[in-house]
């Protein structure tokens, strides 16, 4: 541009006009010079302009090709979308009341492409009776100009008679006069989504009315939701539970926190077990069967925890009562023969040295005969309490029948010898018992046996202590006797 300006004949002419006095012959010469300069510069200017136009044309051509390619790609994507089995469209010409349906629209309801379907009535007749009002209401909104967008989820009838769920979404188009001419809408088959929603709704109802307590927690263990059963069982409102922590909830179901539960969730992703909460008297307040599971959602890439709680308090109390009947003597509250045998069997497997004493009350039959069984039962209970005071704290004391008591202990648990313990019991049981105004005097005969020195199993240990007790009784009652091999020999000679 600067070169053209510098060589411009008009600039040169202006310079000449200022320098030369003007006469007619001068004017002719000046014009001749200007024309000569123009003839020299014109081809150069023309070539520059031609090159610029050619470059612009090339750039425009490339831009058009790029736009065409983008249009083709978009058109291809639209065509693929339009041919999807889950995607269709329909168009309603409001002026002519004609409706056009895409092949996929017909396919959704089981029609072939050639089947006639071209008016609004065909569209309306397939709408489920319970959805007709809602669909009409949405259409009236756009026809009245209240809104330009049309959106509605409803059911339409398939050719075989069943209904599918569809979601229509579209908008109105106005003519040059400003009046609505067409309503165009795309349609999606959302039957599967609706089925899933229905299943979730049913699941939600089942969870809410389940007898088990159920809760769902986030990854950070904060409880999101719980059902009515959990709220009632734990005697807390849903608001209280849904603002609490899952681990705190688990810990509230037991007297002492159990870290193994958290470790199991971290390493294995689940934990299942029983938890018990006891009062100060060691009676069950609440017994629970709990199942916790970590749940990973592939879709959302999130983690939740499910918590299922069953109240088994009544079951545990029943089991405790049955266990009491099976293992506890109803008169004294001590262990019975069944419990003694089971626990003694386990104790002997430990291979520790064990001392067992077999005790029989002297003159007890006279008490029952003279004062009655009620007094006799109270006496047995009182005897059990007194023996309990005199034996090692971890010894198991049992009433094995009638007026017979048995207890055993590991020898290392007492600083006293077995004979010292037997002597203390003998001395105490010689003292009178006062039962309901009666002074009752009895005594005891005690047999002592040791494991493994004098026996090799539970049966031989009991037999040895029983044999020693009978020797004590034959020696004059109020005695105790420790088993030895000669006792066995004496019995054989007597036999």
TrEMBL record:
Pfam families: GGDEF, PAS_3, PAS_9. It comes from the Bacteria. Transmembrane segments: none annotated. Residues 50-84 form a coiled coil. Residues 150-202 form the PAC domain. SMART domains: GGDEF, PAC, PAS. InterPro entries: Biofilm_reg_signaling, GGDEF_dom, Nucleotide_cyclase, PAC, PAS, PAS-assoc_C, PAS-like_dom_sf, PAS_fold_3. Residues 352-485 form the GGDEF domain. PROSITE patterns: GGDEF (PS50887), PAC (PS50113). Keywords: Coiled coil. NCBIfam families: GGDEF, sensory_box. This is Diguanylate cyclase. It comes from Thiomicrorhabdus immobilis.
């Amino acid at each position: 541009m600067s070169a053209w300006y510098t060589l411009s004949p008009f600039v040169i002419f202006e310079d000449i006009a200022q320098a030369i006095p003007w006469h007619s012959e001068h004017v002719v010469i000046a014009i001749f010079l200007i024309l000569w300069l123009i003839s020299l510069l014109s081809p150069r200017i023309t070539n520059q302009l031609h090159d610029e136009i050619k470059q612009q044309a090339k750039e425009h051509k490339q831009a058009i090709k790029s736009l065409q390619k983008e249009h083709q790609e978009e058109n291809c994507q639209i065509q693929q979308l339009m041919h999807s089995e889950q995607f269709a469209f329909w168009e309603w010409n409001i002026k002519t009341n004609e409706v056009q349906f895409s092949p996929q629209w017909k396919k959704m309801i089981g029609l072939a492409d050639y089947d006639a379907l071209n008016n609004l009535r065909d569209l309306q007749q397939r709408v489920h009776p319970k959805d007709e009002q809602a669909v009409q209401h949405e259409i009236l909104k756009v026809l009245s100009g209240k809104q330009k967008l049309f959106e509605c989820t409803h059911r339409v009838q398939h050719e075989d008679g069943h209904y599918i769920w569809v979601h229509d979404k579209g908008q109105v188009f106005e003519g040059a006069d400003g009046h609505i001419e067409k309503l165009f809408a795309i349609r999606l088959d959302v039957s599967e989504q609706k089925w899933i929603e229905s299943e979730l709704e049913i699941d939600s109802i089942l969870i809410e009315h389940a007898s088990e307590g159920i809760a769902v927690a986030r990854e950070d263990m904060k409880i999101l939701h719980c059902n009515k059963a959990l709220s009632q069982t734990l005697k807390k409102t849903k608001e209280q539970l849904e603002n609490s922590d899952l681990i705190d909830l688990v810990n509230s179901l037991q007297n002492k926190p159990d870290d193994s539960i958290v470790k199991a969730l971290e390493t294995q992703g689940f934990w299942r077990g029983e938890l018990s909460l006891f009062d100060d008297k060691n009676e069950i307040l609440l017994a629970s069967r709990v199942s916790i599971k970590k749940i990973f959602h592939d879709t959302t890439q999130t983690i939740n925890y499910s918590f299922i709680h069953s109240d088994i308090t009544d079951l545990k109390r029943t089991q405790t009562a049955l266990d009491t009947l099976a293992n506890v003597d109803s008169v004294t509250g001590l262990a019975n023969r069944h419990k003694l045998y089971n626990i003694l069997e386990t104790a002997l497997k430990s291979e520790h040295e064990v001392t067992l004493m077999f005790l029989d009350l002297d003159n007890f039959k006279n008490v029952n005969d003279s004062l009655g069984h009620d007094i006799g039962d109270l006496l047995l209970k009182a005897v059990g309490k007194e023996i309990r005071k005199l034996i090692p704290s971890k010894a198991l004391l049992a009433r094995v029948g009638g007026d017979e008591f048995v207890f055993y202990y590991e020898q290392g648990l007492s600083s006293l010898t077995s004979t010292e313990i037997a002597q203390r019991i003998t001395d105490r049981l010689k003292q009178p018992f006062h039962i309901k105004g009666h002074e009752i005097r009895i005594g005891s005969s005690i047999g002592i046996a040791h494991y493994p020195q004098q026996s090799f199993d539970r049966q031989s240990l009991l037999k040895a202590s029983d044999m020693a007790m009978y020797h004590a009784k034959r020696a004059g009652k109020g005695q105790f006797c420790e088993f030895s091999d000669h006792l066995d020999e004496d019995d054989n000679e007597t036999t």
